[in-house]
Amino acid sequence: MSGGAPRFQQEPHPPPHQRPLADTNVQHLPLLEMLSNKVGKQLGHPTYSLTGWLVSKFFKWHNQILEENAVKLCNIQPNDTVLELGHGPGFGLQAAAQLLTGPEGKLLGVDYSQYMHEMASKRMKEQISRGKAVLYYSDVVAMPIEENTADKVFHCNCYYFWPDLKAGARAIHRVMKPGGIMVTALRLDSVKKVASKNMFSGESWRPEVYMEALQSSGFTDVRMENKREKLITFQAIFATAVK
Ligand SMILES: C[S@@+](CC[C@H](N)C(=O)[O-])C[C@H]1O[C@@H](n2cnc3c(N)ncnc32)[C@H](O)[C@@H]1O
């Protein structure tokens, strides 16, 4: 998405693998709760709307630095195949593309928001046209990527929205090469604040729940580390795919 004013229209069809969002009886909710519900849904699945556009601006302001750090922590090699899940506007894809300088280097992305898929596709149009990047409009659990494809997988602020973390972790494991590295970056303080406003369903935003799902899905050396970069503190979860 360039800086221009967005045209808001409904996504014409549900994305191919989209699950219906939980229905909320909005009539009985107080205004603030309704608003936080709306923002929570847009964070997890931005659509063509004013809130979706504002949320995309928030991703740049709050998350771009996190995305860039996740990329650094992947230790990307020039000929790697790298996959980002839930890439949103595409700042992490952009950072990863700069490191994939070898002839075999390839970048893949998956997002089930049509709005984010199109925004990132615009941002990455040069790499897509050269065949260096392929973006899929898909749910993580149904991504049309062959098994044993990715050397590195990363995602930021994404797993909290998955209704079944074990299914998500199994899907990641499937597409990774043996010994491949997965990195998840998050700002736990911010995530806790969002969770306290009931914007996530259940407890699956907790890193330990996701780490347990990774462990039971064929990952080893699963660990979370605290990191500091410039003015921000964040957490990185690492896992290695064993096959
Ligand atoms: C909070 S946004 C984060 C975007 C970006 N990674 C960042 O940190 O700014 C979550 C993104 O993950 C995508 N997403 C959430 N659940 C997904 C799923 N099950 N499959 C594919 N994409 C998903 C959403 O559409 C959205 O673009």
Automatic annotation (TrEMBL):
- Gene Ontology terms: biological process: sterol biosynthetic process
Pfam families reported in the protein's UniProt record? Methyltransf_25 (PF13649)
By its UniProt entry, which SUPFAM superfamilies does this protein fall under? S-adenosyl-L-methionine-dependent methyltransferases
Give any GO molecular function from the UniProt entry: sterol 24-C-methyltransferase activity
Sequence segments annotated as region (Disordered): 1-22
Q: Where is the composition biased (Low complexity)?
A: 1-11
User: Does the keyword Heme feature in the UniProt annotation?
Assistant: no
Similarity section: Belongs to the class I-like SAM-binding methyltransferase superfamily. Erg6/SMT family.
Name listed for the protein in its UniProt record: Methyltransferase domain-containing protein
Q: What species was this sequence derived from?
A: Onychostoma macrolepis
